[in-house]
Amino acid sequence: MKKRYRLIFAGCASLVILIVMFMWLTGSFSREGKIAPGKHEVEETSASGLRTIEVKAVTIPVQEEAVGTVTARETAEISSRIMATITKVNVDAGAHVEKGQTLIVLDSRDAEARVKQAREALASAEATREQASLDAGRIERLYEKQAATKQEYDRSQTALKMAAASAEAASAAVREAEVNLSYAKVRSPMSGKVIDRLADPGDMAAPGKPLMSVYDPSTLRLDASLAEHLRSKVNVGDAVTIAIDTLGKDLEGTIVEIVPASDASSRSFTARISIPQSEPVYPGMYGRIRLPVGSAEAILIPPEAVEHVGQLEIVTVVENGIARTRSVKVGKTHSEGVEILSGLVAGEVIAVP
């Protein structure tokens, strides 16, 4: 039994020794195995012939980012004012339209018939009024000569007033019928672009049923949600940088409106930013804005001074004529250079290719 335990113990001890030897050979016990920015210097060479610059701390603007969606301030859902069959659609989605341009034509036969009936009724009413006017004039002359009674005179005046009222009502009916006839042509309420076409010839148009939507490109803006703590740092008229990812470039915008209420669920408020009209931007696009909220000291160096080796970012530090490579942590890229978050301090000298 003791011999068996000794064999088991010897086997376990041998296994432990093998594991320790493997870890030692792979460098698991070496402190230099892990790389920390600014702590690991990999290579030393002579600095002779290298172009160098002194690292300096500079003041950079501090910006906060917010996301938003492109919207149009002036958008119209177009529908018919009368119920009729669509006979023609003149434009498609994406088309540019002018204010008052005919977009959709409706079947106008019923409306034309009502106009004709109204005009005939008006002609009859005007004839009746003309006859009532002649009769009233004749009775008035007879009444002045005491050849007609007061009752006849009053009756003629009443008939004239009733005929005049009927003629006026018939005239109003003609105007109403003509207006309804004009509704057979659905027109654009603004100059702009067609967002979507929702109807085809043969469809039935009815009041309140959307047929087409139009927006004015000159009223495009970015509706951005800003965190509540930024409210005191932004004002109408402030300039901001807009980034529309699909454009691949930054735009300059201006805050034109700030909604005076916060969203309780997201703890944010909405700021509306104007967008340059010359850019190919459309409603619904995703965008971001960068707001200047202050300034800070930072280390900036030329981008070409940073060498990428695998997942490491390396710079060459020159000290006492010796060039040593050192890993650093790189932050955002600015117009003056890339920001170094750690690994360099002001006053050090680095090599620049």
From TrEMBL:
**Mind telling me which Pfam families this protein's record contains?**
Beta-barrel_RND_2, BSH_CzcB
Keyword annotations for this protein, in alphabetical order, are: Coiled coil, Membrane, Transmembrane, Transmembrane helix
SUPFAM superfamilies in the record: HlyD-like secretion proteins (SSF111369)
Stretches that traverse the bilayer: 7-25
Tell me the ranges covered by the CusB-like beta-barrel domain, including all copies: 222-291
Q: Which GO terms describe its cellular component?
A: efflux pump complex
Q: Where is the CzcB-like barrel-sandwich hybrid domain?
A: 75-212
Which GO MF terms does the UniProt record name?
Answer: efflux transmembrane transporter activity
Q: Which residues form a coiled coil?
A: 108-135
Hey, which family's this protein in?
Belongs to the membrane fusion protein (MFP) (TC 8.A.1) family.
PANTHER family given for it? HLYD FAMILY SECRETION PROTEIN, MULTIDRUG RESISTANCE PROTEIN MDTA
The record's listing under NCBIfam families reads: RND_mfp
Protein name from the UniProt record: Efflux RND transporter periplasmic adaptor subunit
Q: Which organism is it from?
A: Candidatus Abyssobacteria bacterium SURF_17
